[in-house]
Amino acid sequence: MVDSQINEINDLKSPKGTFLLGHLPQFNTYNKHQVLERWVEECGELFKIHFVGKEFVVSANPDFNNKMLRLRPEGFKRFSKIDEILKEMGVDGVFNAEGTAWKRHRKPTAEALNVKNVKAYYPIILDKTKTILEKFKNYSQQKAIVNVQKEFMAFTIDITTEIAFGHKLDTINDKSNSFQNHLEVIFPMINARVTAPIPIWRYFKRKKDKTLDDSLKSIEKVIYEFIDEAKKRLAENPKLKEAPSNFLEALLIENEDVNFTDEEIYGNVFTMLLAGEDTTSNSLSWGLFYLAQHPEVVHKVREEAKEVYTEDAPNIYEHIEDLKYASAVAQEAMRLKPTTPQLYLESNKDVIIDKVSIPKGTSIILQNKVAQTHSDYFSNPNDFVPERWMASECPMHKNHAPNVMRAFGAGPRYCPGMHLAKTEMVALISTLCKHFDFKLEVKPETIRERFEFTMYPENLKITFIPVVPD
Ligand code: HEM
């Protein structure tokens, strides 16, 4: 807990660092989240670090973090560097907007991703679930060792692109598409630039910076064409207003009240591509990481699937609501392996939280993973037990604090894609468990957490063994 004696940042502890560079050399490794976890062990839940003199507060206290997240947008904002980099790439959307601009973006985005609309998008999720199922059936016949992280990435890319603006891709079947190739250029560059100590590209364009510019131009062209087409469709077919077939249409409908410019619509469609792909596919990969080590859980998911639907996959959206155990599997995987283990905030004004005074302009790293795997909040915290999320079955209700879960953030800026992501995860987890057993082809300890823009399992290799029908 936060020490009640501490009331100034200057009084906070600090891990060991170097005099001039501070903690930068240790932090700038490829697994930043694990460095933070080690420091939490060394210094406790609240401490400070500095990068070449620039100070950062790190908090792993769930209550403290929750209060900061809830004080947005007035009290706190995202790190200004995120906005700087995205705007430079022409992206002005809900993720990087702040203050009143954020409020304008948030309402229509959240509406466009609400339960009613996700239900309308469900045929897209189902279609891609069946497509990847067929691919895995082929893999299982060939006894192929599958890099599931790559496969799930294709699954979420195809779904997100079609839901975002109606663009049909078939990345699952490796039908290479220039749009996809451009996206693959953009994502790592955003990651590299957000964490770059010096913005070299502003003074000198390297080959990769020029490639990025070309890709951004191509994506922009495609998205603007789709904006024009969607506007025409909505004008010609007013019925679409009741059940928009994609996010862009839903945004344009909501937009009748908000009056976004085309640039802002573009920014939000692009944001959705960015926010919805890696996060969901990496969470799915972690789900498979645990399922492959827990055949008893796979069996239970399969029994539930057989009770809920007779087809190959959950054929209607209502099935998803009934797949409570598959949903608990997804939740448990996100508790143990949140793909966004930390969030970055900056204070907009002087704030006092739990007797700690945070001056305006303080940069704060919110480490959320430690609490999700701590015995103060969950019994047997490192065990994979989906039952803990099934109220009537939970064998360990003694320590069960769902309110420390931050996999989707918290407060007014929590993830608006949460419902969509959970729907994708439940559909795929249930379908795969219905058809296959999973065998881990590498030792679990060789599967490492790897943090880039999000956290994913490196070296996850699995074979899919077909289930013999009853
Ligand atoms: C398992 C999958 C996902 C995870 C773990 C995840 C996680 C997160 C987290 C931690 C945040 C920051 C929340 C905060 O600041 O409090 C966020 C924001 C956001 N996410 Fe997700 N996300 C996922 C899927 C999606 C999907 C599928 C979409 C849309 C298609 C999406 C769209 C967004 C947007 C637009 C924001 C910015 C919200 C704002 O600033 O108001 N996410 N997400």
From TrEMBL:
Record flagged with keyword Hydrolase: no
Keyword Iron applies: yes
Annotated TM spans: none
Cited SUPFAM superfamilies: Cytochrome P450
Keywords attached to this entry: Heme, Iron, Metal-binding, Monooxygenase, Oxidoreductase
PANTHER family linked to this entry: BIFUNCTIONAL ALBAFLAVENONE MONOOXYGENASE_TERPENE SYNTHASE, CYTOCHROME P450 FAMILY 4
Similarity-based family: Belongs to the cytochrome P450 family.
Protein name per UniProt: Cytochrome P450
Annotated organism of origin: Flavivirga spongiicola
Organism taxonomic ancestry: Bacteria, Pseudomonadati, Bacteroidota, Flavobacteriia, Flavobacteriales
